[in-house]
Amino acid sequence: MDDITRLTASELLTLYRNRQIAPSDVVAALLARIGARDPVVRAWQHIDGDHALAQAAALIPGPDSPLYGVPIGFKDIVDTADLPTTYGSPIYASHRPVKDAVCVSLSRAAGGIVLGKTVTTEFAGRNPGKTAHPLDPARTPGGSSSGSAAAVADGQVFLAIGSQTAGSTIRPAAYCGVYALKPSHGAISFSGMKHLSPRLDAIGLMGRSIADLALFRAALLGVSPVPYVPVSGPLCVGLCRTPYWSRASADVQAAIEQAATRLAASGIEIRQVTYPDAFGDAEELCWEVINFEAARELAWEYAQREHSLSPWARAAIENGRGISLDRHANNLQRLATAEQAFDTLFATVDVLIAPAAGEEAPMGLADTGSPIFNLAFQIAGLPAVSLPFRSGSAGLPIGLQLIGSRYRDRQLLDIAATIEQRLVS
């Protein structure tokens, strides 16, 4: 048998159905991989191998267990009753929640195994964690879902939960070369996860195939998985370079253009689309909303443990405290206007294609990279997929970002699977 740590979750489930492997063997293989690679990648905040093996041994297969025996990593802003949850902050070094987050409860109910807690930036913000890129430890894996992306990419876990406030799922997935889904805002419960900005925070799903994302999404919605429905009719893809195109590297620009050319050659209509300007500067708007809400969400930490906050967190809170309620209300209205503008745009195209990140993973671990190509889609609450496509001049992954209309998440996955087939055929 090939290295089981490199399988997709869907392939692993086939082995289980055929009784070719046991969950305990899979967990043991992952723990061995983590033991060998953790000194380099440092993707995990907390691992309890004995507890993971005990979960595997206790599993009882059943027809209602779509994630039966699949080990999962959970970003360390996700509450777990049986493992510590530190939110990437020394303030919570000994914190033990009293109950699981909704995404953990639903994963367990679907037969998933909680392998451990993956590294997050502080409160899922911009202050980096300890994780390095699995292909080049001198580079960032992205943030804030750094540990989740790196662990999936390095064969340390099959599925992982991240989150996204600006670009914290799509960007690290692109840097590390894994598949990711950032659902429509509110489509999957965020309950039991530490908020930074409730208006923008969304859960993120990472895996090794589109099929894995669809399977994981179904489990987190508490519904039965549905087989793919290939898109057989005509498709129209909007090529959205965004106003920040000049900030993309030559490799990223070439990847997006190459993808559009291949899709057009396969019979998909490519339409050049104009980026809605209803909200003005998406970067400024996004950070104002985040900072205003972070100042409220982290009010206790600032009042009681300010000395334990990073300079980034203190600056964000203090900036947010300086934003008036009237200005925040105006910013929220701009977000609503942006949503309406994208609704109009999606009346003319089925999906948008744009850079998932502006470059290959940058050198250094002091910064997690820019989310500039994610911001507008995030503040409009749109679902997005990061699809690994090719490598850049540094030999590192470049991802395509596919963006769908709000609450058409399953349709986006079906289209993403179709686009992937066309790109590799």
Fold and architecture overview:
Strands 1-3-2-4-6-5-10-11-9-7-8 form an eleven-stranded mixed β-sheet, sandwiched between helices. It is of the alpha/beta class and 425 residues long. β2, α4 (102-109) and β3 form a beta-alpha-beta unit. The protein folds into two domains: 1-278 and 334-425, Alpha-Beta Complex (Amidase signature (AS) enzymes), CATH 3.90.1300.10; 282-332, no CATH class. The mean pLDDT is 96. Helix content is 39%, strand content 14%.
What percent of residues adopt helix (DSSP H or I)? 25-40%
CATH architecture of the largest domain: Alpha-Beta Complex
Strand content: 5-15%
Largest sheet: 11 strands, mixed
Question: Which parts are unreliable, with pLDDT below 50 for 5 consecutive residues or more?
Answer: none
Rounded Rg: 20 Å
CATH class call of the largest domain: Alpha Beta
Span of the ends, CA to CA: 27 Å
Number of separate helices: 14
The structural domain count equals: 2
Which fold name corresponds to the CATH topology of the largest domain? Amidase signature (AS) enzymes
Counted beta strands? 11
| Physical arrangement of strands within the biggest beta sheet | 1-3-2-4-6-5-10-11-9-7-8
CATH homology-level superfamily of the largest domain: Amidase signature (AS) domain
User: What structural category do the secondary elements indicate?
Assistant: alpha/beta
- Categorize the overall geometry: globular
The ordered string of helix (H) and strand (E) elements is HHEHEHEHEHEEHEHEHHHHEHEEH
